[in-house]
Amino acid sequence: MNRREELDAALAATRGRIEAAARAAGRGPGEITLVVVTKFFPAEDVRLLAGLGVRDVGENRDQEAGAKAAELADLAGLHWHFVGQLQTNKARSVARYADSVHSLDRVRLVRALGTAAAQAGRELGCFVQVDLAPALGQDPDPGRAGASGEEVLRVAEAVAGQEHLRLRGLMAVAPLGVDPAAAFAELARTAERVRREHPAARELSAGMSADLEQAVAAGATHLRVGSAILGSRPPAR
Ligand SMILES: *Cc1c(COP(=O)(O)O)cnc(C)c1O
Predict the structure, then answer these.
(1) Contact indicator for 129, 113 with CB cutoff of 8 Å
(2) Residue 237 CA to chain centroid, in angstroms?
(3) Which atom of ligand 1 is nearest to the CA of 209?
């Protein structure tokens, strides 16, 4: 199999998993967007994926994502999702190529991204990243991404107040060592609270290669899938 055939087969298998999970949950597969996370893989793979009908791609490092987006500027209709931890000083760069940002977890970052999006003359879809660990009784870890408790509402409010940012909903990664079904159920509860204030924030970005079924069952609208489609990632450079 060449690389194109390999990606085609893995994509078909992943789409099959999503359809089965949607059916089991009584949902339509059309409600669910598959974001293929291409971090560490070359722009050429993204080009092959686009040829296979992929429209949504995810990246987690600004430098790599910006370079790939520039290299693939000729591909019309690709939607770039930034899913990684974001430093405030990278907001200007991300606002130039990203269409959605899934990792907003502090008010200062929201303000920087809102300003950057205005300067770039662009509108960005935004997800507030939630750290589910505290609500699941896990120890706090200062290095972990995501807002928790009342901070989630404060970050959502900040996004809603930015003219060039659109609050889409919440994002989370299931913490290690926790049943993903329980983790995503907690995310769905948090999302309900946010929707009381922001009814349009209906989307949920949850679920990766190992736990997309549990995420679909909990109402995920965006799945971020990397290794199940591209293979195991090469060691970090
Ligand atoms: C890498 C990454 C993914 C994809 O993970 P896989 O387990 O390879 O599917 C999803 N979300 C985020 C935030 C990531 O960094």
Answers:
(1) no
(2) 22
(3) 9
> What sign does the dihedral 96-102-105-110 (CA atoms) show?
positive
Q: What six digits make up the tokens of 85? A: 């931890």
Question: What are the structural domains of the chain?
Answer: 3-230 (3.20.20.10)
pTM: 0.97
* 2 C-alpha to ligand 1 centroid (Å): 24
Q: What is the pLDDT of residues 157-190, one digit of tens each?
A: 999 999 999 999 999 999 999 999 999 999 999 9
Q: How many CB atoms lie within 10 A of CB 13?
A: 11
Q: Which residues of the chain have pLDDT under 70?
A: 235-237
Residue 110 alpha carbon to ligand 1 centre in Å: 22
Q: Is the CB of 39 under 6 A from ligand 1?
A: yes
